[in-house]
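Q: Predict the bound structure with adenosine-5'-triphosphate.
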Amino acid sequence: MQTVTYTQIPGLPEPKRGKVRDIYDLGDNLLIVATDRISAFDVVLPNGIPDKGRVLTQLSLYWFDRTRHLVPNHLISAESDAIAEAVAAAGGQVDAHVREMLDGRSMLVVKAKPYPIECVVRGYLAGSLWKEYVRAGGREKPVTLHGIALPAGLRESDRLEEPIFTPATKAEVGHDENISLEQAVQIVGEVARELARLSVQIYRFARDEAAQKGIIIADTKFEFGEKDGRILLIDEVLTPDSSRFWAVDDYAPGRAQPSFDKQYVRDWLESTGWDKTPPAPELPPDVVQKTSEKYREAYRRITGREL
Ligand SMILES: Nc1ncnc2c1ncn2[C@@H]1O[C@H](COP(=O)(O)OP(=O)(O)OP(=O)(O)O)[C@@H](O)[C@H]1O
Ligand SMILES: [Mg+2]
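A: Predicted complex:
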């Protein structure tokens, strides 16, 4: 099956390449292209995953549409013609090959001024916050982490009484660091309180909708930007790359949950004894294929549509 793991558009400057996405600066707008690259343990793997980029983009589009009553977002268009036009206007050459490369995986968006914090919302106790909870002694006594009071005796992956806003710094290198709302206010100003309110509201809405469709969105990360004095929801939203997705059927607190999308990849990598430093080993075809199917399944469950 064909994958797109690297993009280039003749006539345009090199994009900014993240682990997964290639971002082209078109002046007032950006073109965000989700490739089929996949990372595990923070390392980009040599294989692409068929359909992964399209799933990420189509899920973002789905949620941008479903949440526009809560917050305006950066989307201008994901239509092939509109994208081709914008790329051409910025000096890029769009032939049939480039169109095919971009199709279904690209979003033309308004370039905003990103607020330099990650707006993380958690509905379940997992990942870095679970680690901090254990370290602080939460299994024996109530603890306060980054200004948030948590009861004693929660288990790993337990559902929290109420979703919590646990922002993080945007680290240029290394890992993002969890911070309190008050620290977020120090970084971006009073607007942090509004970002917190919006983040929790969007998360609640999506969590409730996804849960009815068999997917637990355990936590998620939003980014916001400012444009003409307005707050816009930017980046990708409520995708398996920006969130923890768990299958409702397999959910059992008291342990780490299998990842809806990346579990085959993680299990296989663990089985090889790879030391988690680059380069990562090449995934076998059945792991690639099963993982591709998990992304399509996530899309199918949430949207009710086939990719
Ligand atoms: N509408 C927008 N306006 C301005 N910047 C945006 C917009 N949407 C997304 N961005 C920015 O684009 C960048 C996306 O980068 P991307 O997530 O692909 O890579 P990264 O964050 O550098 O690395 P990683 O792959 O580890 O996440 C983010 O910094 C995000 O803030
Ligand atoms: Mg990113």
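A: The chain has two domains: 1-111, 114-250.
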